[in-house]
Amino acid sequence: MITKLDYKINYQALNLGHSYYDYDIDDTFIHDYNPNFDEMRDVFIHIKIDLLKTETCAELFINLKGSYNVLCDRCLSFMKIDIDKNDYLIFKEGIGEDDETIIYISQGTEFIDLRPHIYDFIALSMPMRHVHNDESDCDQEMLNKLKEYLIEDY
Ligand SMILES: [Zn+2]
Fold first, then answer.
1. Where are the domains of the chain?
2. What residues have a C-beta under 5 A from ligand 1, the ion?
3. Which residues of the chain, if any, have pLDDT below 50?
4. Which residue from 34, 93, 100, 144 has the highest number of Cβ atoms inside 10 Å of its Cβ?
């Protein structure tokens, strides 16, 4: 079982070079981190991280692979989304403006907590618009009900 502590990387103690991390992410991780985020369920994502530490930074090459269910925008029933994507993040010693891929850390930083970043990668992997590929894959009963109440806008 993975505990919160397992997501904390001891930056100071890391050897220069590559370190590898594997995590299996499920609903518990998501809801522990953000109880208000209920758009995903049945989350099963395997995360592989290849961390490269150099003198002044740690580069993370991240792969997310797995699936989760989200509500279809069209029929409001759950649909499965498969993901297999690569992300990149660098923790850099120094002062500057963080952006999507660069996080600045002070020289004496001891631990880096990966939880917020893993959460972001997963939350951001969700497509803006998610609908069943074909309307015929949608929950037809639900579609008919919705059509009675809503003005068709697709
Ligand atoms: Zn649908």
1. 4-149
2. 72, 74-75, 132, 138
3. none
4. 93
